[in-house]
Design a protein that fits this description.
This protein is mainly alpha-helical. About 90% of the residues lie in helices and about 0% in strands. It has helices at about 5-25, 30-40, 45-120, 125-180. Helix 3 (about 45-120) packs antiparallel against helix 4 (about 125-180).
Length: about 180
């Protein structure tokens, strides 16, 4: 199907043959490609020489495809590993958030009960001090929860960016392998 090839593609094929011819003339021979060529040529060495170049090109392309696939598989593995790590990190942050919310509600409830009790017993100055403490603790809890929410958002952004890379790399890698 050479008629479907562009001039650039034909020149690229010619360049491959030039490189292989120089390799062959320098005495560098791929033994497996040579044996396959001899087998196809039924022992005819001059015909085998012509077939050798096709065999050698096939083997080089197969090697290149294998290396590309291995590289893509390695990249996918690294992305999956990153996603697993981020998922664990998100689980930890979610656990911290749940635990923190339980603790903060308990502490705030106790402080409020303590403050109301002080007011009920007429300890106005102590009650006002406790009320100030409630406000300070509440501010601390809000800041802490905001920090945990920011951490969750950062992890989610990282997960989205990895998902985007995976979605864009898979079709592209398949096209790349198909074209070559």
């Amino acid at each position: 199907m050479n008629f479907l090839q562009t001039p650039e593609m034909r020149l690229h094929d010619d360049r491959k043959i030039e490189v292989l011819l120089a390799e062959f003339e320098a005495g560098i021979v791929d033994d497996i490609a040579w044996v396959k060529a001899l087998k196809s040529a039924k022992g005819n060495e001059s015909y085998a020489k012509a077939l050798y170049f096709d065999e050698r090109i096939k083997r080089l392309e197969d090697h290149w495809h294998t290396q590309q696939k291995r590289s893509l598989d390695d990249a996918d593995f690294k992305l999956a590993k990153q996603l697993a790590s981020l998922s664990k990190e998100m689980d930890i942050v979610n656990d911290q958030t749940k635990s923190f919310k339980k603790q903060s509600v308990t502490i705030m409830g106790l402080l409020c009960v303590f403050t109301v009790t002080l007011f009920a017993y007429g300890q106005i100055q102590l009650a006002l001090g406790a009320l100030l403490l409630v406000l300070l603790v509440f501010t601390f809890f809000v800041n802490k929860e905001t920090g945990l929410d920011n951490k969750k958002a950062r992890i989610n952004d990282q997960i989205k960016s990895i998902d985007k890379v995976r979605k864009t790399s898979n079709p592209a890698s398949k096209i790349l392998i198909t074209l070559v």
